[in-house]
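Table S4 entry, Glutamyl-tRNA(Gln) amidotransferase subunit A, mitochondrial.
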Amino acid sequence: MHQLGKRALATSIRDPYNALISVRANPKPGNGPLAPLTWTAKDNITTTEEPTTCASAILKNYYSPFDATVVRLLNEAGATLLGKNNLDEFGMGSSNTNSAFGPVKNPLYEEFRVAGGSSGGSAAAVSGELCDFSLGTDTGGSVRQPASYCGILGFKPTYGRVSRWGVVAYAQGFDTVGILARDFAVLRRTFDVIDKYDEKDVTSMPIWIRKKFGAAFLPEKLKIGVPHEFLVGEMSEETRSEYFATLRNLQDSGHAIIPVSLPSIKKALPAYYTLVSASAASTLSRFDGVRYGVSIKPEYPETIVSTNRSKGLGIEVQRRTLLGNFTLSSESGDHFVQATKIRQSLVEEMNDVLTFPNHLLNTPENPDGVHVLVAPTAFGEAPTIEDYKSACKSSLVNGYINDIMTIPASLAGCPSISVPMRNRRYGLQVMSQYGYDHFLLKAAELIEAHR
Ligand code: GLN
């Protein structure tokens, strides 16, 4: 791993966590509903004033000619951008150790523990109080899992609610811009600004669907579904006991805790990695040092693309590119189709257990269903960097397996938020039906009050 060093590191920001890749030279205080809040952006969200590196050596000098739509909206609302956050290269990872700019340190601990990933820099910046909120991206858990490790809120809205225009793609059918914050008030104000239709993003949720969700009212008695598939053997005792304590408190206050089953959760992990690797192999092919990125002049010109990509892309990105290209090849059989079917089954199972209709698929309301689903966000607290690295060394799968907790909401495209439990080192995840983001935020706030 090469350390590339920081740019324009203003003396006014102390960053003991390596949460920032660049710092804005002259942050301007804004005017508007979000003033005087300060924020940072994951470095796969384009800004014109600083490079957008995606924590990759191949993009270390890349300047975007435009700001992402979310950056423009936040600017117009008066929020002040302070800098760009470290991440796992192109969003691939769960620990922020796959970065050309070095790993991020978790602010909750004295010793070096990982901040989670891939939006580890965003989570550390918010948890370490370098800014009021941060925007990350969540493809399979990258906002929720680092939020859980760093003791803050991490919200992945419904797929399509927030514009992806100007956000460097990892897997286009999953990537969702999310918000990391320390409290619900800031998180909601931010969401209200970026929750907009954008004609520049072909996957932006159309206005006619947005109108269907109406105002969100919490019922007196919330019906909370507990999918047993999430209670896996790998989960730590502490996580379990924190989780059960919250469920007990909710039950004591008269809310209903209802066991439910979504069998496809068991197959979600391989389905997700099959689909996102295929997508990444395709979207990342543009980074060849010819159209985008750094070019290393090779001895033999015909090797220019392979040389640039071998030197410019990190090992995890190369691994997934190989896997994705294999999946898309005729030799791989029908992995892609099988994975797509698992995704579809999971959506159907969600529609069966949740009470709200899925307006995208025109499913009916289900009076016997639950309002939200809950689960821990991760198996345990943040591991030390040594433990994490040695676990990945003994088996690569150990780097992926934690994602089983967050991937189902990503496959379903539904909104999901991680809320710190009574012990901040653990997070509880709350999910709801497609489009019911405002309901979800209210329910999650109620659940937070019962931890
Ligand atoms: N850890 C998952 C992955 O590497 C999720 C990453 C993300 O949400 N960007 O794909």
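The CA atoms of residues 167 and 289 lie 19 Å apart.
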